Amino acid sequence: MDNGYLVLETGEVFPGKLIGSKEGAIGEVVFNTSMTGYQEIMSDPSYAGQIIVFCYPLIGNYGINPQDYEAESIYAKGVIMGEACHLPNHYSSEVAAPELLEKLNISGLSDVDTRELVKTIRRSGSVKGYITDSVKDFPTVKETENWVEYVSTSKVKNYPGKGPHIVLLDYGYKKSILEALLYADCQVTVVPYTTSLQELQALQPDGVLLSNGPGNPEVLKNHLPKIKNIAEKFPTLGICLGHQLLALAFGAITEKLLFGHRGGNHPVKDLATGKVFITSQNHSYNVKEESINHEIFSITYKNINDGTVEGLQHKHLPALSVQFHPEAHPGPQDTNFIFEKFLTIIHEKTGVMSYAI
Ligand SMILES: NC(=O)CC[C@H](N)C(=O)O
Fold first, then answer.
1. What mean pLDDT is reported for the chain?
2. What family is reported (predicted)?
3. Structure confidence at residue 356 (pLDDT)
4. Is residue 331 in contact with ligand 1, taking CB distance under 6 Å?
């Protein structure tokens, strides 16, 4: 029996069964097409403030394990699925997905016609939705604009390593990005996104990584001069939000896609070689191609499905960025070489050798 609803701002109502917190939630409704990896998706801080719709019909069958979290909590507002598995079966599972939602006070709705819902979002674009126990008028709630503030660390964290020292500027980083650097034996310092240029310089990094993160990159416009200075001083890699910020810092413009790219099979083409890679993605915004100054950047990758910009290389500085997720989790690890590329640039620039190259 239905006891919950997703009410869209545009008026459509999708019935279902409430799972997790019964408090209800409001957020931008976005869909992810990955067939596996619901734990990594739910715990990716880039979903802060959003309601995730899983296209794959059954969610939770292998449970939730202690290793696969991408962050310490779930920052998404809610999750919506076709069928929720309450009795998972996997040796490493310690809790069922609906139970985890309840524990973390996250709203969820199962038994939803997610196929129809996704078709609706694809037609009308990303829309706000309300998970609720009864159909009522869409409430007006003033939400924060700056979701990065909500997910970024407040403390500096150090991770030892024998390779280059990377400062990870935390806009809501996924643990897999940190792990990719540690795997290459880098020394990593994770710092709040508000860290000043002076504070960052005092850490004497060999390279700086601008992380992924939630929300509209333009909200961080006050940070762009600092980001430009960082890229002028240190080898820099931007991932997803980090890529958008690097582009904005050098004068490009970002725009919102109709319904974004979220899934584990987004094909991108390396424009230099013509080679195609299948990538993991999660973004709403995109760097507008016409806004890119070709004296400053070369476009390195493009999305095969819609031709949007997927990667940039600065022409005069050791700075590169990708819109997709080379750290994967979930999704294919085919573009893991982006980290090697970054470490090679650091080696060329600073002489500091890395385990990965
Ligand atoms: N994964 C990310 O870093 C997302 C970037 C940005 N919030 C967007 O939705 O486009």
1. 96
2. Belongs to the CarA family.
3. 62
4. no
- 229 near 221, Cβ under 8 Å? no
Pairing between β-strand 157-159 and β-strand 187-192 as defined by DSSP bridges: antiparallel
Task: List the structure tokens of 127.
Answer: 């829309």
Is the C-beta atom of 241 inside 6 A of ligand 1?
yes
Whether 215 lines ligand 1, by a CB cut-off of 6 Å, is yes
For a ligand 1 pocket test, name from 241, 257, 261 the mutation site with the most ligand atoms within 8 angstroms of its C-beta: 241
Residue 259 CA to ligand 1 center (angstroms) comes to 12
Q: Choose the CATH number for 4-132 among 3.50.30.20, 3.60.21.10, 3.50.30.80, 3.30.70.270.
A: 3.50.30.20
Tell me what ipTM this predicted complex has.
Answer: 0.98
Give the residue carrying structure tokens 């801080």.
Answer: 45
**Mean pLDDT to the nearest integer, 328-352:** 95
pLDDT tens digits along 93-134: 999 999 999 999 999 999 999 999 999 999 999 899 999 999
Whether residue 60 has its Cβ less than 6 Å from ligand 1:
no
Active site residue 240: yes
Task: Tell me if 224 sits within 8 A of 245, measured CB to CB.
Answer: yes
Q: Please confirm, yes or no, whether 325 is among the known catalytic residues.
A: yes
Between 3.40.50.1950, 2.30.30.40, 2.60.410.10, 3.40.50.880, what CATH number should domain 147-350 receive?
A: 3.40.50.880
Q: Which two tokens stand for residue 331?
A: 């999704």
Residue nearest to atom 8 of ligand 1 (CA): 283
Q: Amino acid letter at 49?
A: G
